[in-house]
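Sequence design from tokenized structure. All designs in this work follow the same two-part layout: the structure record, then the generated sequence. An example of the structure record is given first.
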């Protein structure tokens, strides 16, 4: 047998090692470890209290089941009770006035980055399917599909490609339900004569008829949630996907959308994250919509971005802590909205126990599309017919004091204003101080910012480009 020279053995060994490395080296489509995918589902104008697992009357079996599989937040809040600033805050992680996206039909300042930038740099496909209401496109370089609602066919393809290519995804599935007009779903599931109205409603036939149509559309949205979860199961992606379902701002019934009351600003939030979130848990940790982007970045393995105002609540999800924030903030800009007052700026701050609201121009009548609705007109009619309760609720909605303070635990519907009660002056002053600090940090100049709102709307952006 002929022996191989020593130097040839060395060369042969290197060749063998090289080929072994080539064979076992994972391809780009086959990551060495599983990355967390994200499915974020958002409703449109849905009061959190109306969802089944939040004690509501709407039939929401899919959302209720998801809550049993994950964590339900009892104190999740958004930054503005309108669609466009809310969505900008979610995707940028920035407070509305700071990003420039604070009125409705708005856009962020030039050069602002969003979750699409941050997750794409981490190797993710970032897709938005359904309602957009954001701008400019340069700040939101998503893959897009759908019109007003998620495109299930496009999402099916996204999941299939992700599964095949091994590339993680973040999908924002944005519904247009139950935004009015309430014309989807089966309203026969509800009885207008027995449906329970919130205590701040005026009981009229128009209110009851619209309430059942609205509840039916929440059930329709719940069906969308079920279809999306079904697609995750179809492509065997559920185990590696964090699912977040939120309800957005309150409905367009009075005292919800367009107001800084909890009915307008508080949101349902349910998170399922297999292996990380304990099933069937409920948390009172206070979180905000601006916290969603940094939470996704954190869960994806990224780091906190300096431009982002929010903070990751992954420690809450994983059970390492049961607290997150001591205060949450809100703002409402009436200037420029459909059928709105020429100007009526509102700012709010909430702690676990108290809520403070400042109305910049209490001398102005508070108006919006709601006050022109058939529902509100039926309230006016009942008041003109001599119903004192109806008259009181109309006045409370349209005429706001300069300051409002509520003991939120005892008074969850914010009906008993304590702003002028000396017994609560210490609480009011603490919240006023924190609200002022927050406004200053955002560059919010109060009424001046309200009057500049039209410069931050989409029509101003189009005019600038023309």
């Amino acid at each position: 047998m002929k022996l191989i020279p020593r130097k040839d053995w060395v060369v042969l060994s290197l060749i063998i090692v090289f080929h072994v490395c080539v064979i076992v080296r994972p391809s780009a489509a086959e990551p060495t470890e599983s990355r967390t995918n994200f499915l974020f589902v958002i409703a449109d104008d849905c009061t959190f209290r109306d969802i089944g697992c939040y004690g509501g009357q709407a039939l929401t079996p899919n959302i209720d089941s998801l809550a049993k599989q994950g964590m339900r937040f009892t104190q999740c809040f958004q930054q503005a009770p309108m669609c466009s600033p809310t969505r900008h805050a979610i995707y940028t992680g920035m407070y509305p006035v700071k990003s420039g996206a604070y009125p409705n039909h708005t856009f962020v300042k030039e050069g602002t980055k969003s979750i699409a930038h941050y997750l794409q740099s981490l190797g993710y496909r970032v897709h938005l399917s359904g309602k957009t209401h954001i701008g400019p496109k340069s700040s939101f370089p998503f893959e897009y599909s759908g019109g007003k609602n998620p495109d299930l066919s496009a999402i099916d393809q996204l999941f299939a490609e992700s599964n095949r290519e091994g590339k993680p995804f973040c999908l924002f599935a944005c519904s247009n339900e139950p935004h009015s007009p309430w014309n989807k779903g089966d309203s026969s599931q509800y009885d207008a004569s027995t449906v329970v109205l919130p205590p701040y409603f005026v009981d009229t036939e128009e209110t009851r008829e619209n309430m059942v149509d609205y509840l039916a559309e929440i059930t329709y949205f719940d069906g969308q949630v079920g279809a999306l979860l079904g697609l995750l199961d179809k492509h065997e992606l559920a185990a590696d996907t964090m699912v977040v379902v939120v309800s957005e701002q309150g409905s367009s019934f009075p005292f919800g959308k367009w107001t800084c009351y909890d009915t307008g600003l508080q949101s349902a939030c349910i998170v399922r994250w297999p292996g990380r979130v304990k099933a069937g848990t409920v948390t009172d940790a206070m979180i905000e919509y601006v916290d969603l982007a940094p939470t996704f970045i954190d869960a994806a393995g990224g780091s906190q971005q300096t431009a982002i105002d929010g903070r990751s609540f992954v420690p809450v999800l994983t059970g390492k802590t049961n607290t997150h924030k001591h205060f949450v903030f809100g703002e409402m800009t009436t200037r420029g909205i459909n059928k709105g007052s020429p100007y009526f700026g509102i700012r709010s701050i909430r702690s676990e126990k108290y809520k403070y609201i400042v109305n910049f121009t209490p001398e102005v009548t508070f108006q919006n599309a709601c006050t022109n609705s058939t529902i509100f007109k039926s309230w006016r009619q009942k008041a003109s017919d001599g119903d004192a309760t109806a008259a009181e609720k109309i006045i409370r909605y349209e005429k706001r004091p300069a300051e409002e303070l509520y003991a939120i635990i005892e008074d969850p519907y914010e009906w008993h204003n304590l702003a002028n009660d000396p017994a609560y002056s210490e609480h009011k002053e603490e919240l006023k101080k924190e609200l002022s600090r927050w406004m200053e940090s955002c560059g919010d100049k109060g009424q001046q910012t309200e009057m500049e709102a039209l410069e931050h709307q989409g029509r101003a952006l189009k005019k600038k480009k023309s």
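DSSP finds 15 helices and 13 strands in the chain. We note this feature because it recurs in several other targets discussed in the main text.
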